[in-house]
Amino acid sequence: MPLSKIAGIGMYVPEKVVTNNDLKKWMDTEDSWIQERTGILERRLAHRTEETTTTMAVEAAKIAIERAGITAQDIDFIVFATLSPDYYFPGCGVLVQRALKMKEVGALDVRNQCSGFLYAISVADQFIKSGMYKNILVIGAEKHSMGMDYSTRGRNVSVIFGDGAGAVVLQPTEKENQGILSTHLHSDGGSAEILAQYNPGSHANHWMETPVADFDDAEVGEMFMSHAMIDKAQLFPFMDGPTVFKKAIVKFPEVIVEALTKNGYTTEDLNLLIPHQANLRISQFVQQKLKLRDDQVFNNIMSYGNTTAASVPIALCEAWQNGKIKEGDLVCLAAFGSGFTWASALLKW
Question: Would you name the residues annotated as active-site residues?
Answer without folding.
Answer: 114, 276, 306
